[in-house]
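Need OsmC family protein's 3D structure for a figure. Predict it.
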Amino acid sequence: MSFKHVFNAKLNWTSKEELVPSSAKKYTKSHSIVVEGKEMMQVSAAKAFKGDPSLYNPEDLLLSSVVSCHMMSYLYVCQQNGIEVLSYQDNAEATLEVLDNGSGRFIEVRLFPQVIISNKEQIAQALLLHQEANKLCFIANSCNFSIVHQANCEAV
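Structure prediction for OsmC family protein:
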């Protein structure tokens, strides 16, 4: 049996001529996104695409979604396998390829999970569970680029 969930977001953008004169024929990239029941998020294009570098951009949000979903899936499979995770950190990176015609796409995300567990006898299994977590991750299952895991695990 499958279930379907619908997620909603509202985007609001207006031209701010005082920031970008209409004669420049460029639009400001900054806008707001609201998800019901949550604080408004200010978003722009990445600095490389003439956006406001102090704001989140779609590329940041996509990478954040991948790394966050992987962690939650990983914690789930560890719990299912009796592995106690004490801490989880990741310094993920995404590679975006931009073509001459202005189109582009992510070609790879690299996750570098640093996991600390309570039982050193479970380190090998804890490392293998990253692949299982990737198979369960809703976001990873929705991506058309490779997601590479370079995990490290220690026990205390």
